[in-house]
Amino acid sequence: xxxxxxxxxxxxxxxxxxxxxxxxxxxxxxxxxxxxxxxxxxxxxxxxxxxxxxxxxxxxxxxxxxxxxxxxxxxxxxxxxxxxxxxxxxxxxxxxxxxxxxxxxxxxxxxxxxxxxxxxxxxxxxxxxxxxxxxxxxxxxxxxxxxxxxxxxxxxxxxxxxxxxxxxxxxxxxxxxxxxxxxxxxxxxxxxxxxxxxxxxxxxxxxxxxxxxxxxxxxxxxxxxxxxxxxxxxxxxxxxxxxxxxxxxxxxxxxxxxxxxxxxxxxxxxxxxxxxxxxxxxxxxxxxxxxxxxxxxxxxxxxxxxxxxxxxxxxxxxxxxxxxxxxxxxx
Length: 331
Description:
With 331 residues, the chain is of the alpha/beta class. It is built from nine helices and eleven strands. It has a domain at 249-331. It has a seven-stranded mixed beta sheet, with helices on both faces. The chain has a four-stranded antiparallel beta sheet with strand order 2-1-4-5. The relative contact order is 0.14.
């Protein structure tokens, strides 16, 4: 039985809105509002939701690339919120990130060899010759030629750049990698190659992933568990197979109904959600999803449902934040 590598509780991050001549605080963007997450060793948690729901902020707040406002982040037995910057730097070699944009995440002024050698230099790993050998091994591991060390980022395609980004992320043999939509900027034909590479590296190195994406088909392929996020909060959390077989939240059901089926003879009921995603600066009262939910009741407008197990669901792995969970379905 795998043990928990990462536990996140009550994570919050609000961004102030400044206005007027004197740039006074006029409100907040509630980007991340009371998030709970758990990732086991060697496993992948997929975090899905529409653009602007706060997925990327969650990933960066966990790594403290963005400072959370409150909450508890326990990683490898360490309370990351209580660590000093110097102590956090020591822990950070075990937690890395793969950025969404492979064109902006690599320094155009450095050679690929310099980019991949930098993590070893920062953490004082090995001699100069050792570091160069490590860089060549990294390139081979992600399917790149050793000749790439003397070339620059602009000389590579998007897929190759993302392989370089992955090589940089695994350089120090981390325990956790936050994958911030690592394939969304790539062609469909390349996406599967990158996802399969991540799966292969996970098996080889026993890495845990927080895989952030809005494509549920991709998330299902790589994830062990899935958390569905809507407007700063988790609305459903389940084992990957369980979530796709029996989604309980109307939002999750609508997302799954939008996944194309690669078989023209099969039909799936498609449900289009009415309206637009509300602004995170002015979220609806009660359940944030109620203005778009066809099953909303009076209580949905005043009380936000807590994430809980429901009758008939896997009590350990399947939780949902919905007052009518299990009683209604769009599918």
